[in-house]
Write a structure and sequence with these properties.
Helix content: 40-55%
Radius of gyration: 22 Å
Strand order of the largest sheet: 1-2
Oligomer: single chain
Number of helices: 6
Bound molecules: zinc ion
Shape: elongated
Length: 170
């Protein structure tokens, strides 16, 4: 039966069977299935986010697809912000992979970082800071683009990235 599911519905369906069977008895007892509008995979209703104001009561995209979309949106927002603060490149090591990049304070005061962290704690998500910047017209507050590597390197090296601290070399 499982092999048949593999052949007809692919990996996603198997993951539901294997992963959800333990947690959701609704699947085993023939729980309601819905085809995701985006990936076209039939999934249990628990795989869809709820949506108030529509007849079905849930979203037409499954949670996985919605997340993917949000990530793409987040990426665009990040690129937009970075372009206002020097471009999509680490000012220190010239890393250009956006996944590794984030905005950093030149003056190291960290107050905006704390604001970002508190936003995250309130469940506003990682893009809270980027959204805030956009909303405020990208204010000049000593921000620059730095990769996580250099950010961390600077943190453990007393404010100077080991890349820049040439005196430590040799
Ligand atoms: Zn989907
Ligand atoms: Zn770097
Ligand atoms: Zn560096």
């Amino acid at each position: 039966m499982l092999r048949l599911a593999v052949a007809t519905n692919g990996i996603n369906f198997v993951r539901i069977l294997v992963g959800e069977a333990r947690t959701s008895p609704a699947v085993l007892s023939g729980g309601q299935m819905e085809v995701c509008y985006h990936c076209k995979v039939p999934k249990d209703l628990s795989e869809f986010g709820t949506r108030i104001g529509v007849k079905s009561g849930h979203q037409s995209w499954c949670k996985v697809c919605s997340k993917e979309c949000a990530r793409e949106h987040y990426r665009k927002l990040k690129i937009e912000c970075f372009e206002h603060y020097g471009g999509v490149i680490c000012v220190c090591c010239k890393e250009t992979e956006i996944c590794f990049l984030s905005l950093d304070h030149e003056n190291n005061d960290g107050s905006e970082r704390r604001r970002l962290d508190s936003g995250r704690q309130k469940g506003k998500g990682g893009n809270f800071f980027y959204r805030w910047l956009k909303k405020n017209g990208y204010p000049d507050m000593g921000l620059r683009v730095l990769c996580h590597n250099c950010n961390h390197g600077r943190f453990i090296n007393g404010g100077i990235c080991p890349h820049q601290d040439l005196s430590r070399k040799g």
